[in-house]
Design goal:
alpha+beta; 5-stranded antiparallel sheet; globular; 7 strands; 14% strand; 2 domains
Length: 307
């Protein structure tokens, strides 16, 4: 149709055979109703349904004369493809690094190291990587996706703890002499386990919520401010909750506070110097995924995993 504008809209529908239906609209410019931007008063004159099935695309025209329309917000064709094919490889890689860093930190945390006069768990080397991945997930894919990943990490960590415990209680071979070393290195007391799990959930969710809210407040600008700001809150709460629950009553209060502040500052500094790398990963993922989620109407309830 000569002189017509073209717009593509994809809308989800329930169907036993098709995953998504897209509407291809051809609109003329002679309607006097209000429009969006430079598309003033478009009038729908023709609609073509585009079906995305598992293997191919087909279309069928539907004639709808003289219907004034407004802009419809939905999934792009790329979004439809992503919906059909599941999670992207990039998303899976970030999640895998997140979970690996989390579990590795819990295993290496039993060793204490001294860095510039500060006594810290060896996990301080790898644990902040999980927060960096959390920042990337929230910034690119949004809080909803990050919420699922946080719970996935929790369940994976729980599975590892159960596996280690079963290995500990199973009877050792008569010639195996490392049972005591196994229990000392990999064994966990119930108090330490509870402190670790609670601190993880509190810190990770605080980090994700702060970053998502700051993104909306700044309208997507100043990425560095929300990376560092969310880290200060998340890592601070993680260190506070874990050390307080794990060691309160067993060491002096002054030593307790010193340990909390030391871990908080070291972990936060780690993420601050990694900010340029986070910028690179975030920008590349946004371009590759054609995605940049803003959690304007999101419920931040950590328990709403399915939404």
């Amino acid at each position: 149709m000569i002189g017509n504008s073209v717009e593509v809209v994809v809308v989800p529908v329930l169907s036993s055979k098709l995953h998504l239906v897209g509407a291809y609209k051809e609109a003329s410019n002679d309607c006097t109703g209000p429009g969006k931007g430079d598309r003033v008063g478009t009038q729908l004159t023709h609609r073509r349904l585009v079906f995305y099935s598992a293997g191919r695309r087909c279309s069928a025209p539907v004639f709808m004369p003289s219907v004034c329309i407004e802009e419809v917000f939905g999934l792009s064709r790329q979004g439809a493809t992503g919906h059909r094919e599941g999670y992207s490889l990039a998303f899976v890689v970030v999640v895998a690094v997140f979970v690996t860093a989390l579990i590795s930190a819990n295993v290496t945390a039993v060793k204490l190291v001294e860095v510039f006069g500060l006594v810290l768990p060896a996990a301080v080397v790898v644990f902040p990587i999980s927060y960096i991945c959390g920042d990337v997930l929230t910034e690119v894919y949004g809080y909803r996706a990050t919420r699922r990943v946080i719970w996935l990490g929790f369940l994976c960590n729980l599975l590892v703890v159960v596996a280690i415990y079963l290995g500990q209680v199973l009877p050792a071979a008569s010639y195996w002499e490392a049972q005591e070393a196994y229990e000392r290195i990999l064994g966990y007391t119930p108090r330490l386990l509870a402190a670790s799990f609670i601190a993880y959930l509190v810190g990770e969710f605080a980090n994700a919520i702060v970053l998502a809210k700051m993104k909306v407040a700044t309208n997507g600008r100043f990425l560095w401010s929300r990376i560092i700001g969310s880290t200060l809150v998340g890592q601070g709460l993680d260190s506070l909750v874990f050390i307080a629950l794990a060691f309160a009553g067993t060491i002096p209060v002054s030593a307790l506070l010193a340990a909390i502040v030391a871990q908080w500052l070291v972990k936060s500094f780690y993420e601050a110097i990694a900010t340029p790398l986070t910028y690179i990963v975030v920008n590349r993922l946004k371009r590759a995924e054609d995605l940049d989620v803003y959690d304007r109407d999101t419920s931040f309830n950590p328990l709403l995993v399915g939404r």
